[in-house]
Request: fold
Amino acid sequence: MSWLRSLLSRRDVLRVGAGGAAALAGSVALGQSGSHPAGHPGAAPASPAPATSAHTGHGNNLMVGSVNHKRNGFDPMAMLTDWDWGKVSTLPNGQTLREYTMIAQDKEIEIAPGIFFPAWTYNGRVPGPTLRCTEGDRLRITFINQTIHAHTIHFHGVHSAEMDGVPGAGPGEIQPGGRFVYEFDAEPFGCHLYHCHATSLKRHIHKGMYGAFIVDPKEGRLPAREFVMVQNAFDTNFDGANEIYAVNTVGFEFARRPIPVQKGELIRIYLINILEFDLINSFHLHANFFNYYDTGTTLEPTSRIVDTIMQAQGQRGILEFKYKFTGNFMFHPHISEFTELGWMGSFQVVEPDAYPAALKAAGVDAGWDRRSRQGAAGGRS
Amino acid sequence: MTAPATAAGRWTSLWGLALVPLLLLGAVLAYLVATGGGLKTLQGPPVEQLKVSRVTLPERGVIQVHLVNDGPQTVTVPQVMVDDAFWSFTAQPAGPIPRLGRATLTIPYPWVDGEAHKVALLTSLGTVFEAEIPVATLTPQPGRDLLVRFGLVGLYVGVVPVVLGMLWFPWMRRLSARAMNFILALTVGLLVYLAVGTYLDAQEFAAALPAFWQGTPAVLLIALLTLGVLLALGSKRQPEEAPLGLSYRIATGIGLHNLGEGLAIGAAFALGEAALGTFLILGFTLHNITEGLGIVAPVVRQKPKFIQFVLLALIAGGPAILGTWLGGFAFNPVLATIFLAVGVGAIVQVVWEVGRLVARNTAALGAPLVGWSTLGGFTVGVALMYFTAFFVKF
Reply:
């Protein structure tokens, strides 16, 4: 039963947070995060991407070059923490009203260095904006279709049939040039998603029309550093199978730029699986165990002390964990195929005093750090 | 003085007239390139096309992919997958590959001996082009040891059977005119079999060529051109004249065929499919033995010098050695296709020539051209080749 003891002791460690390990702060090497501007169309490289250290790759299993996030107009690293709280006001009955505008737009996006995908997007980004609110809020989402195909927004939540965003209910599919206002109360709390439900459904989803929809419980959750990870993939040659897998769209992005976190702090991940074609996805955390809240609709974990969970298409949940050691720790689905096809990244765990340097190395600022800690506070701090 | 001036004037006007359409063509092309010719709205989505001409494994842990862009537009390969995993690589030359351009990708991948691998190239528009490594094994590098071993293979497959077949010469000299005519008819049969086989082999190589080579029609046209040239060269010749010359032409045609066999064997070794090894070589030896018989059949009534036999054997059998080297070390599908297509033409020409000889002899014997003797000989020739090929076709 020694394995059980070790599990329990590890759990204790998780709860208390470890403070004793030797600090390696100054020597944390994050220097390979520099991004090389890629021309359009991307040029085949003349020299190999550096046969990388453990920090930025998986041996030679990597993508050559890096993605131009500026041209894309969104950055997977920024997407980890960019909660959209909407335009907030209070209704006469005291209920909080959050107003959002979602615009369907066609956009060619770079999903891997030099690889361009003709995406269908909400607000020009894949995944779409991370809508975040509190249980019981009134949500008013104005949807405008600026593309040449009909689209909808279908929210996972509780709402009337007219607000379901499917063909044949309420306004049905919103035609090109059309608009519609989806309005409902946010319930139940949890880690949800929204996506286009126009036909043909598979195509409307895998082309990029989806995003995270997080409803916080009224009583809030423990303060933590929070990230949203939308596990997605792209069928670049339209053969009904994915070529590139990722979280937040860009393959191997968090292998090239590990996510900076602090040793001992509580980390919470809102994890959503929006794969098409592949039946399941999974998440495996290296050198750590986590508590898992399936669909995020309970305040008690549905699985405790696990290091791998499985999600079917459309399934999602919340992970909570702390790191005992500093260093570079990988996360990826325990489906090796997806891992090798781009869905792989790592956390750069550092001592708190080394955190500003780690942020800089990852190319993010204090605002990113603030947003990552602000979610649990309901956007108030 | 006026006459030359007039001649010059005539010359100028003659070629001037010939140039008019070309000048106008230049103008139209310039207009189209500059303005799009009012067809802008007809432009569809980009078309990407790539041909993987060869995949080699030059050393442990390295895969090289040789590419030709045979599509209408420039193609870029920003990412490469091996066995469904993105992998680092270098491109030589780097950057986009223009139409008809070539590139070599070097991938540091730990391939596994004897197992299959799949390389996939992802273009900037997300199109996937795949290449198979059916059985991973080090691509043979030219070295003395391997050169000798491949040479031996060519020797067994080409030279040995031809020499053995030629050893029927003393026996044939004792045959009656009627029996000898049967042997010549048999020679026609085996040559027809070789012509068909060589044509199909040529088409197999042609099918793998980049589209702009137009491999399929090219094989037919090269074969026809070869046939035409050889017929024109021999148009003044009577069949009974210089039978030794006929033997040389048969040897040349068979030599080109054996070059093809050598190429196929060498390429199979290079692709790691040499497990067939000894059995395949044995089969080819058996299969090719009748070739020697056919080569010397026309000179049965002559007294060629010994050196002539040596030369005939080298011309017919030697190319198998050359083919094995080329196929194993420096396989070039374009040259392979051309050689085989020339071989088809050459073999058809000797079919024609030996056929005429058979016709003459049959007439001299007072038998119908298509009688049981000639048809029998022809059929036995085809059947010998067909059934011995059971040992070499997989």
User: Anything to note?
Assistant: Confidence is low (pLDDT under 50) at residues 1-56 of chain A. The interface with chain B takes residues 38, 41-49, 51, 60-65, 112-117, 234, 236-237, 239, 243, 251-252, 337, 340-342 of chain A (CB under 8 Å). The first helix of chain A runs from residue 2 to 16. The helical segments of chain A are 2-16, 69-72, 76-79, 201-206, 253-256, 336-340, 355-361, 366-374.
